[in-house]
Amino acid sequence: MGIINATPDSFSDGAELQRSGTTSFQLDIDKALFRAETMVAEGATFVDVGGESTRPGAATVSEQEELDRVIPLIAAISASLDVCVSIDTSSPVVMKEALDSGAQLINDIRALAIPGAAELLASTKAAVCLMHMQGAPSTMQKTPSYGSVVLEVFDFLKSRVAYSLECGIEQDRLLIDPGFGFGKTVQHNYQLLKNLGYFSQLEIPLLVGLSRKSMIGEVVARPVEQRLAGSIAATTLALASGARIIRTHDVAATMDAIRVNLAYSSAE
After folding, report:
1. Shortest CA distance to 117 belongs to which of 96, 135, 101, 147?
2. What HEC string does 175-189 produce?
């Protein structure tokens, strides 16, 4: 799953897609579409588009601003590329517009907590990723605390899967994400990574996002743009523990890791 941040304040790469010569953020559709084309050529099955930064400390944006950032890009990707478009949003309004524009997967960091989200998705055939987050993006990294991070994240995801099923969303449309970096310390993140296999009990495909995150940077002591090797190492560990979808900024290198893992897993 390749990442396209249609935001000015992504922790990694969003501002790179700003239209030249503008003072306020305006997405350059041609630049973003070229990035999507490159990701698909490198092996991406999904392209995840987000219009609201969810990095630690990020400010919220209005629904209209989020729509203005993502809908034209989703429509352009859907019309041009044979790829599953994912929309990274918690807003039912944005979800509906994105699905109408060609998105097929809702990637929700709030796990359908916003009123109306689950009901909307129950009336569609869209896939849904339910993610764990402690707190909100603006405050989640201030004092994250758990008795047992693995058990608490597992119980949360189990309850959100049950809620989704009760609302009429079929199990074969669901994905789960433990939410690396979303209300977790570095230690919490590595405890989750080490115990990813525990989540197989839910019998729901596991999506993970580790790419360039602070859990990598804190260990390797490198800035965001120099965290590829650490991200691939973490990805390899996640794949060995059952991760099925890897969300990444670096598709080509991640596909190499996936191919090596597949060759290793299939060897007799």
Report:
1. 96
2. EEECCCCCCCCHHHH
Total structural domains within the chain: 1
Helices (H) and strands (E) in the chain, counts: 9, 8
Q: Which helix (H) or strand (E) holds 49?
A: strand 46-50
Which residues are catalytic, by number?
213, 247
Residues across the chain: 268
Here the tokens at position 124 are: 């569609």
140 contacts 188 by C-beta, under 8 angstroms = no
CA distance 141 to 260: 34
The Cα–Cα gap between 211 and 232 comes to 8
Whether this prediction's pTM lies above 0.85 is answered by yes
In DSSP terms, 18 is beta-bridged to: 27
CB atoms within 10 A of CB 22: 10
Nearest to 36 by CA among 22, 46, 50: 46
What's the sign of the alpha-carbon dihedral 20, 21, 23, 28?
Answer: negative
CB 79 within 8 A of CB 56: no
* C-alpha to C-alpha distance for 40 and 34, rounded to whole angstroms: 10
pLDDT single digits (tens) 6-48: 887 655 555 567 666 666 667 889 999 999 999 999 999 999 9
Q: Name the 3-class secondary structure at 11.
A: coil
pLDDT of residue 15: 59
Count CB-CB contacts under 10 A for residue 65: 14
Give the CATH number for residue 83.
3.20.20.20
Residue 38 lies in domain: 2-266
